[in-house]
Write a structure and sequence with these properties.
43% strand, Proliferating Cell Nuclear Antigen, homotrimer, 2 domains, elongated, 9-stranded antiparallel beta sheet, alpha+beta
């Protein structure tokens, strides 16, 4: 059983954070929250999304799991204006999701959850450094790095208490330093890891410019990025595996 | 003999409604109105446009016919700002149309009208149902249908007195219901026809979002859509042949 | 030695006027001004740009010459908002240009100036006619001419004291007349030359719509177009060779 009413903008923000990594996903319709966990086909990037029942105008669920084509659900959501409410109702018999926006109704065929890549277990990592920039700052660093390289280095300068985003190209280099006063917060620690820009660019597309993004970082360790949406009732964690440095 | 002065926006609205169906057309320069009738190469969609002399700042004509390349005339009109006046004058000897916008003048070679597909006779049909939605509602139905299918079904639910736009895809369906109170007007009647979305999408491009569109509909019959522009002095009728249902 | 601070919009306007003709250029870092002269690979179009020291927030140079990839420098400049200041500093040892925008720094590898096409000497021509339209009028004439032809004719009607922009297509013609009262200024003289539209379209991209453009013109002679930017402290001259008429 699943029926829900949610604002178009909340649904879109939720879907966007997953669709940057995968085309299809399982959605867990828990009693008190909707949960999506997904990993990209190369096992490099993961997302863990939770949308609390309170983020919905109405929400009723009993723990089922559905499989959806994200692009199609995003197309439907794009038919609504930001303020519009989107009604969703699961037809248990036909295994279709009825999506209604005003007089418009869309019957979406669901995907057998068993045919979808298994949900990842996002590991607990005790990462030594934590930095909190705004989404716009991450965007700026990624855009600059992208001018010169396919990789991006994220590190903490413990002495300066700054967050450093670097990229080395064949001839040109980019270097973006965020001091303590530029950041919402920083907990310095030994942290220096290299990542594929492609994945970070995709994740960056989903991160709102004004979101405070809690970045957990280590030495040649995965990076975790946490941010909230839907007025604090939606939560996203991205995790990205590092590229081992030194060739 | 033909000389006319018309606002750029009126000329553009007129040309757009024809160019969605054909590249070239005949323009009848009647004494009291300009008339264009055209049918697409596959004989599926027709347009009948009338622009009254009163829609022009100045209009003088004596019943001649000219053949024009619509794309080219639209390019010229696009050089004007919306409020600009466009002067047109036919040079009978050279068979060229002189188009002037401010200091700019464009000499457009006309096409021999005899080389252009014959103008269609748009048949009088006594269709049982008439529905009057706004252009924006038609646009919404077409956009939604386009997500799942190449065809669109238009029908009237006589019991509910509602206008139903439907599309059936391989896995997903779309269903858009406009009740009496959503519509400008409705005269229910037996009406249920299937149409090619390609043609409706083209016609829809020309229909202003805020236009009241009078839709005449029957059972496996062509649909007619009528709307006005140029403050009620321009009139467009689109007619689209149905796709016979049932395979 | 070279260090400079300049507003992003001034740097962008300067680079744009050169990058429409060439991909790489030499920049002369004179004591009191920065100078770029370049000619396109086909030797048809030339640009001469001067940006006075006073156009910078800070400027220190001693006459060196650097070679730059314009696209790359434009990419960097695009990272700044219009009001942002861009800091540039030449590292004499590494022959790299350090470009800083806020916390972001970009290390740009320079190009050996000797490997870049030699700077042209823009000839002194005593052209008989001078016309001063606004950039927007040149844009209008070029856009209209582009609808019918690959060439554009610029001439002065000495009797009417007007500037005439013409293009002759296979079937259609365009004719744009600017009278004395439409122009900032005109000094009539024998002037009638044909030019390749491709080059003029490129130059036109760099000319601000509201710039007063001093156009010098002769009979089958090159055209020169002069305009200022950066509040009168930046100066651009474009010169374009004519296409000889009469085939």
């Amino acid at each position: 059983m699943f029926t829900a009413i949610v604002s178009a903008s909340t649904l879109r923000d939720a879907l966007d954070s997953v669709s940057v990594l995968v085309d299809e996903c399982k959605i867990r319709l828990n009693e008190d929250e909707l949960v999506i966990r997904a990993v990209d086909p190369a096992n490099v990037g993961m997302v863990d999304l939770t949308l609390e029942a309170a983020a919905f105008e109405a929400y009723e669920a009993d723990g089922g799991v559905i499989g959806v084509n994200l692009g199609r659900l995003e197309d439907i959501a794009s038919m609504a204006d930001s303020g519009d409410l989107i009604h969703m109702e699961l037809d248990e018999e036909t295994r279709k999701l009825e999506v209604r926006i005003d007089g418009l109704s869309y019957t979406l065929a669901l995907i057998d959850p068993d045919s979808i890549r298994e949900e990842p277990d996002i590991p607990d990592l005790d990462l030594p450094a934590e930095i909190v920039p705004e989404g716009a700052q991450i965007d700026r660093g990624i855009t600059a790095a992208d001018m010169v390289s396919d990789y991006i280095q994220l590190r903490v300068d413990e002495a300066e208490e700054s967050f450093v985003i670097e990229a080395e190209g064949d001839t040109d280099d980019v270097d973006f330093v965020l001091e303590r006063e530029d950041l919402v917060d920083i907990t310095p620690g030994a942290a220096d890891s290299l990542f594929s820009l492609d994945y970070l660019k995709d994740m960056n597309k989903a991160i709102p410019n004004d979101a405070e993004v809690r970045v957990e970082l280590g030495d040649d360790f995965p990076v975790k990025m946490h941010y909230d949406f839907a007025e604090g009732l939606g939560h996203v964690t991205f995790m990205l595996a590092p590229r081992i440095q030194g060739d």
